[in-house]
Amino acid sequence: MSELIAKRYIKALKNDMDAKALENISEIFSGLALSFKDEKFLNVISNPAVSSQDKTNIILDAVKSAKSEKVNNFIKLLGENNRLNVIPSLSAALNKDIAQSTKTYTGVVYSDSDIDASVIKNLGDGLGKKYDSKITLDFVKSEFNGIKVDVEDLGIEINFSKSRINDQIIEHIAKAI
């Protein structure tokens, strides 16, 4: 539900701003979205005993350094409509929208083995050529026994499990015999 609301707000922002301004607002809202992961902050924002105006002022104080009247007015609008809770969804949807318009995506490589940074860069470049985009991959060490590449915004998920590859080799050898 909050995703649909967020998309409406993004549509309004896109009509009012150029691409550079949208990227700047995206950075601001990404920072705000991180605040919603803080339990104390979330308790204040979701507390019905705290007035809507006080909640709005808290968020306005958080973005004061941006010195943007458009951002301030937008946050006031969200506060007036009791929509401050859509900020994380708004941030995610705005980042996704910008990624699609600029064809710039980020993804994650998961593996239980260390992978050289040049291999990860080459993997990102190769996927980027295939999907006519710029794809940047980050490495995350995990329990996955193999390699898994995930670029969520493009809907790409590729995995190579060591056990599955071993099973396929054994099956292939058995068929050859």
Could you characterize the architecture of this molecule?
With 177 residues, this protein is of the alpha+beta class. The chain has two domains: 2-99, Orthogonal Bundle (Peroxidase, domain 1), CATH 1.10.520; 103-176, no CATH class. The protein is built from eight helices and four strands. It has helices at residues 2-16, 19-35, 39-46, 52-62, 69-80, 87-102, 117-130, 162-176, and strands at 104-111, 134-141, 146-151, 156-161. The protein has a four-stranded mixed sheet. Helix 7 links the parallel strand 1 and strand 2 (134-141). The longest helix is centred in the first third of the chain and has 17 residues, at 19-35. The chain is elongated and about 75 Å long. The termini are far apart. The mean pLDDT is 87.
Brief characterization of the structure:
This protein is of the alpha+beta class. It is 61% helix and 16% strand.
CATH uppermost class of the largest domain? Mainly Alpha
Give the strand content: 15-25%
- Summed up, the domain count is 2
Strand tally, please? Answer: 4
The CATH architecture designation of the largest domain is Orthogonal Bundle
Shape type: elongated
CATH topology of the largest domain: Peroxidase, domain 1
Q: How confident overall, as mean pLDDT?
A: 87
Low-confidence regions: none
InterPro entries: ATP_synth_OSCP/delta_N_sf (IPR026015), ATPase_OSCP/dsu (IPR000711)
Membrane topology: Peripheral membrane protein
Protein name: ATP synthase subunit delta
Pfam families: OSCP (PF00213)
